[in-house]
Each structure stands twice: as C-alpha cells, then as structure tokens.
From TrEMBL:
Protein name: ABC transporter ATP-binding protein
Record carries keyword Membrane: yes
SMART domains reported in the protein's UniProt record: AAA
Molecular function per GO: ATP binding; ATP hydrolysis activity
Keywords from the UniProt entry: ATP-binding, Cell membrane, Membrane, Nucleotide-binding, Transport
Short name of any one Pfam family annotated for the protein: ABC_tran
Organism: Mesorhizobium ciceri
GO BP field: peptide transport; transmembrane transport
Amino acid sequence: MSDPVLQVSGLGVTFPGLFRSTSILRGVDFEVAAGEVLGLVGESGCGKSMTASACLGMVPPPGCITGSIRIDGQEVIGRPESELRAMRGSRVAMIFQNPMRSMNPFFTLGRQMIDVICCHRPVGRREARTVALSELKAVRIPDPELALQKYPHQLSGGQIQRALIALALACQPRLLIADEPTTALDVTIQAQIVWLLRRLADEKGLAVVFITHDLGIVSQLCDRVAVMYAGRIVEMGSVEGVIDQPRHPYTAKLLGTVPVVGRGTGDLVSIPGHVPDPGVIPTGCAFHDRCDRATGICAEADPPARTFGEGHLALCHHAVRHQQVTEAP
Ligand SMILES: Nc1ncnc2c1ncn2[C@@H]1O[C@H](COP(=O)(O)OP(=O)(O)OP(=O)(O)O)[C@@H](O)[C@H]1O
C-alpha cells in the first residue's frame, strides 16, 4: 500500500492559561490514504475543527502544538510560516461550512479564482482562466464562462460551494479538509456535494477529511470514520464496522441520536450531559460521567485502546462487552 497522504500522530494542542493550561487535543492519531475519505465526527466542542486547523498549520496563538503531522511525508509542525503558506493551497486545501463567507463579495468569481491560481501555480492570468474554466466544468457548474463573470451574491450557496471545491482543486492538492461543507445547504444540494467529493476521491485519488455532525452523510460518503470526544479519537474503523457494530458507548449513543423517519415516538434523542470543557476534563475516561456502562475503573484509569478486527479500535475499558449493550432496548 502507498504511504498515507496525511499522517497524524500524538497530536496535542494546549493553550496556556494564567493558572493552568488547557488541553484541547490530547494525543490524536489517524491516517488518510490517497482516494480515501475519513469522516471526523463528534459533538460540538470535541476538537474536530482544531484538528483541521492543526493539519493546516493554523493553530491560533498562543496555542502550543505537539506531536507530528505529515502531509505527503512532509512535517507540518515547526515549519516556517512562509513554507506553510505555500503548502496550503498546493498540497492541502480546505473548504468551510459557510461558502459565502469564504468569498470576497466585491470581486467576481473569475477574478478570485484567477488570483488564487496565479498565486499557487506558475501560470499567467490567461492560462489561470483556462484552468478555472476546466475545474468549474469538472465540478459541473452550469455555464462556467458566465459563472466566472458573476459576483458571489449572484450564485447560489450550492454553486459557491462547488466553485470553492473547484478552486481548491485548481491548485492540485493531495489532501482536502472539508469542515461541515454541507451544513448550510439544502438536502438536495448536500447530496450533490457529497457525490462530487466521493467522485473526486475515486477519480483523482484525493485524500479527504470530512468533518460533520451528520452520521447519515458519513455512511454515504466515507470509507472510514473517527469518533472524537474531549480532544481524543475514541473509536475509529471502517464505516461498516463502526456504524453497524459500535464498540464505544459514546459512538453507540451518538448513533442513537440519529432520527429515523417512520420509527420511534417522534421525540429527538440527545445524550444526557455535555462534552466537558477542555479545562476540566474528568480523570480516567473523559466520557465516564455520561456513560451508563461506567464502573470504578473508568473514573480512575485511562482507557486502553482495544482492537476489533482490521483497523477498528476503541478506547474503552468495557469496549468488548459493549456490543450487547447497543442491542438492548
Ligand atoms: N482559540 C482558542 N482558544 C482556546 N480554546 C479554543 C480555541 N478555539 C477552540 N477552542 C476550544 O477548543 C474546543 C474544541 O473546539 P473545536 O472548534 O475544535 O470543536 P468542534 O468539535 O469543531 O466543535 P463544532 O462542531 O461546534 O465546530 C472547544 O472547547 C473550544 O472552546
């Protein structure tokens, strides 16, 4: 197998404070291969976006970053800002939740695409325009010539998100980090963006990290999924493995919150309690005070990583027995 495009190991992000420091990420490990889509899921505040920022070398000051992040074998941590700037856009690109906010409202799409392409590739403006047109066609924007002449407000949210994906691809990255790129879009457009990202991974061998709260999208789009809780990956494996046979009680509860049309009372299910503030993470397993399987050891000792078949692991003292729990009424 070829080397992974993205290799994250022992990633930690800590913010110093007046009396004590706050650990936002606490030893995150994962890899993404070419052509693979990894879903990164978890409740709000568990550290998904911070993981993405770290991969782009964009942890806000005064955050301290430790561990290792390699993109195409090149270390990100400790690299000078000038080199990181060159890496962003060329090796790694990112798309965000609100596509409109990623565009400058005062310039046409064409002007913005050409500027970015000229900045990242050794081409003149005429050639950059040809590249922009070809990428807009690749993401199936109708009438790309006309789209280039439009201002952001003249395009729909779905068209802008496609244009941003086109812009990201025009710089020929190996890795795309998508932070909730479909949240602001209606379900039909969401489905089109999901289909587009899957096609780009399959056809161009793009490695994709897809951050989302939507486990339905994960099951349609992703090859593997990593579940985060309180700054750690608590379960990771193939989508089939994790979604059909969750081993961590947190994953099972997260799956239990997904509404299913035509089933249940109609009430939305939530997980009691909340993600701990990074400044006050409980000892032992960070999930123990919300977990109905917790025993004494869960409050005392760090949970071990247990493996279940190829590439499926869960950080839980009771992960082995958990399968029976998910089947209980
Ligand atoms: N610049 C910062 N300084 C200090 N703490 C921060 C900073 N940015 C984020 N945090 C904290 O880090 C934790 C993780 O935030 P992050 O945005 O990564 O979560 P998330 O899982 O992406 O949440 P959401 O799904 O709501 O976007 C949160 O508790 C947040 O308050």
